[in-house]
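Moderator note: this is an archived Q&A kept for reference. The question asked for a predicted structure of one protein chain; the sequence and the answer are reproduced below.
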Amino acid sequence: MGLFIETSGRGPEVVLIHGWGMHGGIWSGFVPWLTDRFRVTRIDLPGHGHSPMLADWSLETVAGAVLEAVPRPAHWVGWSLGAMVALEAARMAPRAVASLTLLCGTPRFVAEPGWPGMEAVTLTRFADGFLSDYEDACRRFLALQAWGMPNERELLRGVRSQLSGRPPPERPALLAGLEVLRHADLRGVLRELSQPVQALLGRRDRLVPVELGDALAGLKTGLVSHRIDDAPHVPFLTHGERTARLIHEFIASS
């Protein structure tokens, strides 16, 4: 199955994996921060944007489909749900993933005693909005992320334009991705990875709490964690230059 990809720039390979309910177009405003140094590939996950749906949509099958579609080896950047896909890909094909950036991502999305995350009931309410009225929920989500930013209106116009250029996600893909967010636990995978890993977290993130940095560092020796001030769940949109610089520095050190 061929997934839809876009590639631009020159240099070491970087792969961008989007989050739940979005598509590769969400990266459009961020890619120019990277293409002066890297060859960047962004992908639509199965059932999202221009990519066809998988008959069996699971974390393993999605990671396998992405691995087939993108260059190897590459430095992977996974945002939100995309971080889980990237973790699974790094487990399945260690030589394909040179390094891994968890961008507002986590190996275990739902909160547990001693583990910071989103409360299960909050995740259900959040997901129900997307499932009942995708366009309205998407607008509300983006408005919440952009709230208080100096360029709030310009940012929202740009992102909405990027997202509207592709079909909305298929409902089975949304439901399958939601099951991954609810149940997947990749903490053991992260602990055993041999690749360099960094976590980029936003201090204003209401989905993946910034406190996760300490928990991640406790899981994997050598994991680098950065907290981006004033950033919500989409720091690559609101703090593109800072996010790109951290990725540049991490890949250079790797």
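Archived answer notes: The longest strand covers residues 97-103.
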